[in-house]
Amino acid sequence: MDKKTEEFYDRLKGELEKSNSWPALYLFKFIVPTEAEKIEQVEKAFDCLGAVIKTTQSKTGKFTSVSVDVQMKNPQAIIDKYIELSTIEGIVSL
Questions:
Q1: Are 5 and 53 in contact (CB under 8 A)?
Q2: In this predicted structure, what is the pLDDT of residue 43?
Q3: Which of 13, 31, 40, 46 is 20 to 30 A from 61 via CA?
Q4: What is the CA radius of gyration of the chain?
């Protein structure tokens, strides 16, 4: 992980620690190319966590928005999930 990315995650972790008491409900939002395999990878990352997942395809059909509402135990768990999903080619975390 490069220094800029590491600094971003450190800042996000600090903000999450201040803004919530944990565990807390967290909304992940991702944009992925509309390929069943990539959408499935995102969904599988939240298996067994009781997540509510919604997908919406873009007007052109090239991309799909994936929103995931899930109870997370602490800010580090959120950071770990973002890092885990960053390996999916073409994913954008919002």
A1: no
A2: 96
A3: 46
A4: 14
pTM of the model: 0.90
Residue type, 59: K
CA distance 80 to 20: 17
The helix or strand, by DSSP H or E, that contains position 48, with its residue range, turns out to be none
26-61 pLDDT tens trace: 999 999 999 999 999 999 999 989 999 999 999 999
> CA angle 89-54-35, nearest 5°?
30
How far from 22 is each of 28, 44, 53, 68, 78, CA to CA, in Å? Answer: 16, 23, 21, 18, 11
